[in-house]
Structures are given as C-alpha cells and as structure tokens.
C-alpha cells in the first residue's frame, strides 16, 4: 500500500494503475493493493449481498428502502472514487441513482471484509476515513476469525454496537428488520 507522497492524487492516477492493482484515493492520497479477493472474502460478500438484496433492495420479505451494492464507487471531496466492499444508501436520502456520474452522497452504511492484504488498510485508514466523512454505520467482517463487528458513528467516533461470531443468529443494525444467520458467511460453506 502506498503512503502519502505530498501531492494530491487524481482520478488519472487511478486510471494509470496496472490491471492487477486496485486503488482508491482517500483525502487526496492514492492507496493501492492487489486486485481480487480470496475465497473466504468472496464467499462472505456473496452471502451478505444475497441476504440484504431481497428484503432491503427488492422489498421482498423486508422493508425495502435501500440501495445495496457490491463495490459501488462514490465520490467525496478529495476522494474521487471510494470503493467499499459493500455499500448502501437509504432511498429517502438518495431517491435515484445517477447513471452517468459519480454518486456524491455519503452512504448510510459500508461493510469491509478483511483479508490478510487489506486488514491494516481497512482498519487503520478506511475506518477513520469513513468516520471523518460521517458514514453512520460500518460493519467489519473478518472471515479469518469468523467475526462480524457492527459500529455506529456518534459525534465523529465509532461506537461498537455488537460483535457476533461463528454461528450466531442476529438482527444487526441498520438491517435489523431481518435476522442474519452468521454461520452462512464463513468459508468453507456449510453443507
């Protein structure tokens, strides 16, 4: 991962990265990491998006009212392309998704799925960045330790609202209208 170089990075710097490298510009600093994810991370992401999509995006067996996406970029001042692993907006705050420009509305929820390559970056760089920009909810999913931690932003600081492990069943805000079976998140999948 790159550290600050002194001059603000640009969107062109992102476009110039080789195909096997992913980058994000957070507050003018370009951070890079290897592109791709391992099976445990891909599995956790796939399960979460499936569990949240129907009740919150499609309004099937749930309240609806959300846009929930995998790696959907958004733009903030000094940060032309921020890409959380999962991201969501309440439709009351973002009634329509733009089709030809960046989303410039701060998300209501982000989730990062830790891997050995992204653990430090997600915890040390992105977590404080999300707090600084006022994202109200953040989930950290750790396939290695089989833990999901949910945090709520209060007065610019993260407040941990819960930690769930292994095979817990839980209602986790801001998606607490449904119960999640956490045993489904972990790799290898249960039979």
TrEMBL record:
Give the keywords, sorted: Endonuclease, Hydrolase, Nuclease
What positions does the domain Putative restriction endonuclease occupy? 9-180
- Residues in a coiled coil are none
Report the InterPro entries cross-referenced here. Answer: Nuclease_put_TT1808, Restrct_endonuc-II-like, Uma2
A molecular function GO annotation: endonuclease activity
Keyword Hydrolase appears in the UniProt entry: yes
Q: Name one Pfam family in it.
A: Uma2
Could you confirm whether the keyword Iron appears in this record? no
According to UniProt, the name of this protein is: Uma2 family endonuclease
Q: What is the lineage of its organism?
A: Bacteria, Pseudomonadati, Myxococcota, Polyangia, Polyangiales
């Amino acid at each position: 991962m790159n550290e600050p170089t002194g001059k603000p990075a640009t969107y062109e710097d992102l476009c110039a990265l080789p195909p096997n490298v992913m980058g994000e510009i957070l507050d003018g600093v370009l951070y890079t990491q290897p592109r791709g994810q391992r099976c445990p991370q891909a599995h956790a992401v796939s399960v979460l998006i499936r569990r949240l999509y129907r009740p919150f995006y499609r309004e099937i067996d749930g309240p609806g009212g959300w846009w929930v996406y995998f790696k959907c970029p958004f733009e903030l001042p000094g940060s032309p392309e921020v890409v959380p692993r999962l991201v969501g907006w309440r439709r009351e705050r973002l009634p329509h998704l733009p089709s030809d420009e960046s989303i410039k509305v701060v998300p209501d929820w982000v989730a990062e799925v830790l891997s050995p390559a992204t653990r430090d970056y997600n915890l040390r760089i992105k977590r404080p960045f999300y707090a600084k920009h006022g994202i109200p909810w953040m989930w950290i999913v750790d396939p290695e330790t089989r833990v999901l931690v949910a945090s709520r932003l209060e007065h610019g600081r993260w407040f941990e609202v819960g930690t769930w492990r292994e095979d817990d069943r839980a209602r986790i805000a801001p998606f607490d209208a449904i119960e999640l079976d956490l045993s489904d998140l972990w790799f290898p999948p249960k039979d």
